[in-house]
Specification:
7-stranded mixed β-sheet; 25 helices
């Protein structure tokens, strides 16, 4: 019986090639797309979950009550870890952690590389499973002159990773470090990548000016709890540690699971409200709907194709075949079709995975472990059930006498369901079209919005070696290079989250109130280089010797401190009095998802480590080569690496841009699958109505009227889908845009254009088949079979 059913399956597949091909293509495309999304979701979901004691790892976060609401910060005081270690017995380990955003030179003799590193507490390798292949995790970071390097870095420096413990490397051609360990991060799904690890206390050797107190926050605090300890208990004990040890009563601590920092990084009014996990959820929903769209095609085409299998069903029923047996046969055929589509989908994923990685920015490999294999088989089973259940029930319940007479009655409910499924498909398509358009417009808005400064043709690189000790001479020499418009320097990076302090005191400020305010240290000409405009007052100038004790606020800061006529007034900062020199117009250094923060700017030529150079338009590449040549001569032993400031800004939206790119492809595929189903139904409809078309042609009806007749039914369905889909699309896109402090307006043109695109695609899909039917010779349609 099984062999006989298999023969019937393949014979029907070959006989009705168009339906079979559309089913296979639709299902395989849907399954391939779903598998891609599942691989992406799995990669996102498992970030930072590889640590052996992952369930005991937490991060101390700061919840700060400020004048404009409650804010959440990762940065904590550098003395906090020791205070927690001393006061909370339920804590097994606690470490400070700093990710050094600037690359540093690690060298051996004449071989050196600019690499990314971190400063951490002694217990780092005991807490985190970063695969220390050589060295003792308990002692690797005990000595202030120790360094633990990656396996890749060891091979680059020494040609091998074996036998290098105890060897020396130079840090920035200045400090000698002894290798105390080697780690291998290959295959680890970590949110942070680094090339070397240094003991935290060495930070104060490399940067002796850094203050270590309760009023400056610049470290992450990671905590490992004793097994079985309630995180709520520890959170209650550490909540008021900052307030007890400083006069900052607005700050309180809470715990966040370490492995959740990647997906759950968005807070509003001190409450966790999502983050990248929102995209994971959205893509999870997309997986389901894409599979559903593919299944709808199968259901519609299978039930519409039922008339072709009337005799088979009738004969089997008259020979005593039970309804259950017929259902099992047709359900088995559906499952077999889905399995064939699944094999094709798997081949497509293997073939297209490199392109998918390029688009998504991932390094996903198709290692079907137990979890992924279970997901894929689950998709096959789910798709088979969704696609096969209704056709199996529908075909098996057909009346034997009626089907043998060649009669196949189609009930109103069956027609309604078929039409409803088409409407559902195109409703989803309309929503996806609108979503892609809105995401594209928002990304375009971000690229073109006036940020309050000019980021074009500006490069940034780290000041090293002689460039630090002879900074003024270095900047003057840069200015003399043809093609350089301006050169200046600042502390840390311009784009991204700025440093902050609560040490600012202004006239009228409540003594017990600490307000965390962002700040920038800059050299002369930096504001002019970036084109930051002044609203009142003036910028820093070499013509005024006292400008080192002057301060500039942005508009947000002036609104916060509330000083009327602020120019010339003084404020206290770090034990010195600063005169307010000017008010800069607000400018964006962070993502447009964030409001502009209150900020002050001070001029400190001795504490700037990032060089920024504005290059004349049209002279970019040649000037950069000149700068590189000059830099190598000036700073022997330091490789020259630079970044464009506009690329740094674009990097703030790397996740959104990749999500937008993936969404575009997935939306296109969903629309394509929908059109395949519509095309299949159009073929079936034109074949079923060929005699009607022949009679109409014979009676003199015009071809255009016949084309209109055959397309109007589908046009009505798509039109209804547009009416349903547009309001839903509006609500969803409006909700997504609320995640941006600065965003595009939802213009009605997006929705009208989406409707037009959906209708055009549908009419082109159906119209092709309608034109073919209308232009056929009516004699062929009316000829007796």
């Amino acid at each position: 019986m099984i062999i006989n059913n298999l023969k019937l399956f393949f014979r029907n597949a070959l006989r009705y090639k168009s339906v079979s091909l559309i089913n296979i293509i639709g299902l395989s495309a849907g399954l391939a797309c779903a598998l891609f999304i599942c691989l992406w979701i799995y990669e996102e979901w498992t970030v930072d979950k590889f640590h052996e004691n992952e369930k005991e790892l937490y991060q101390a976060m700061v919840r700060s009550k400020e004048s404009n609401g409650v804010s959440v910060y990762e940065n904590t005081p550098p003395v906090l870890p020791q205070a927690i270690k001393n006061d909370i017995p339920e804590v097994k380990n606690v470490i400070p952690y700093i990710y050094d955003f600037a690359k540093n030179v690690i060298s051996v003799e004449n071989t050196g590389f600019k690499l990314q590193g971190i400063y951490v507490g002694d217990e780092f390798f005991e807490m985190f499973s970063y695969n220390l292949t050589q060295g003792n995790p308990q002692t690797a970071l005990k000595d202030i002159n120790n360094i633990v390097i990656s396996k890749e870095m060891a091979v680059n420096l020494f040609g091998t990773d074996e036998g290098i413990l105890g060897k020396s490397v130079r840090f920035n051609n200045e400090h000698v470090k002894q290798i105390s360990g080697v780690f291998d991060m290959t295959g680890l799904n970590s949110s942070v990548q680094f090339d070397y690890v240094l003991p935290f206390e060495s930070l104060y050797v490399h940067i002796p000016r850094v203050k270590k107190n309760w009023n400056n926050s610049y470290v992450y605090t990671y905590i490992e709890l004793n097994e079985g300890v309630s995180p709520e208990l520890v959170a209650s004990k550490i909540e008021n540690i900052i307030a007890k040890n400083s006069n900052n009563e607005t700050a309180s601590l809470f715990l966040r699971p370490f492995s959740s920092k990647y997906l759950y990084d968005k807070y509003e009014e001190g409450v966790q409200v999502g983050g990248r996990v929102d995209y994971v959820k959205i893509f999870g929903i997309i997986v389901f709907f894409i599979l559903l769209i593919a299944c709808i095609n199968f259901i519609n085409l299978s039930t519409a194709n039922a008339s072709r299998r009337m005799r088979e069903i009738g004969i089997k029923k008259s020979m005593g075949a039970k309804t259950k047996e017929l259902r099992m046969q047709f359900f088995g055929e559906s499952m077999l079709t889905v399995c064939i589509a699944g094999i094709i989908a798997l081949l497509l994923v293997v073939l297209l995975l490199p392109q998918f990685n390029a688009i998504s920015g991932k390094q996903i490999t198709l290692s079907l472990n137990t979890t992924l294999l279970g997901i894929f088989l689950g998709m096959i089973v789910l798709t088979g059930i969704l696609a096969g259940s209704y056709p199996a029930i529908y075909l098996s319940k057909l009346n034997a006498v009626e089907v043998l007479k060649g009669k196949l009655s189609t009930s109103f409910s069956e027609l309604l369901m078929r039409k409803g499924l088409v409407i559902f498909q195109f409703t989803l398509s309309v929503i996806l079209i609108v979503a892609v358009m809105v995401v594209y417009q928002q990304m375009k808005f971000i690229q073109n919005k006036d940020l309050g400064y000019n980021k074009d043709n500006v490069i940034a690189f780290k000041a090293e070696g002689k460039a630090i000790t002879q900074l003024d001479d270095f900047l003057l020499a840069l200015d003399r290079i043809p093609g350089v418009k301006n050169a200046s320097s600042m502390f840390n990076e311009f784009v991204g989250k700025a440093n902050s302090t609560g040490d600012l005191i202004w006239p009228g400020k409540e003594p017990d109130k600490i307000v965390d305010m962002q700040y920038m240290r800059v050299n002369y000409d930096m504001l002019e280089l970036l084109g930051i405009k002044m609203k009142k007052g003036r910028s820093f100038s070499r013509n005024f010797s006292a400008d080192s004790l002057k301060i500039i606020f942005n508009e947000k800061a002036i609104d916060l401190i509330g000083i009327e006529e602020p120019i010339g007034k003084t404020v206290d900062l770090w034990g010195d009095k600063y005169e307010i020199l000017g008010i800069a117009k607000d400018f964006h250094t962070e993502s447009l998802q964030q409001q502009v923060k209150p900020m002050f700017i001070i001029c400190n030529t001795q504490r700037t480590s990032t060089i920024m150079v504005k290059i004349k338009a049209g002279e970019l590449q040649g000037t950069i080569k000149e700068i590189e040549s000059f830099y190598r001569d000036y700073n022997a032993g330091f490789p020259f690496e630079y970044r464009f400031v506009d690329e740094d800004f674009d990097a703030l939206y790397k996740s959104e841009q990749r999500i937008a790119a993936l969404s575009k492809y997935f939306a296109g595929l969903a629309i394509l699958i929908s059109c395949l189903g519509l095309f299949g139904l159009a073929i079936f409809t034109s074949e079923n109505r060929k005699k009607e078309v022949g009679i109409r042609r014979a009676l003199g009806q015009k071809k255009s009227q016949i084309i209109l007749l055959l397309t109007s039914e589908f046009a009505k369905l798509v039109g209804l889908a547009i009416l349903i889909g547009l309001p839903i699309a509006y609500l969803l896109t409006r909700d997504w845009l609320t995640g941006f402090a600065y965003r595009v307006d939802l213009n009605v043109i997006y929705f009208l254009l989406a409707g037009f695109i959906a209708m055009t695609i549908a009419l082109l899909t159906v119209g092709y088949q309608a034109i073919q039917a209308a232009y056929k010779n009516p004699v062929e349609a009316l000829r007796d079979e």
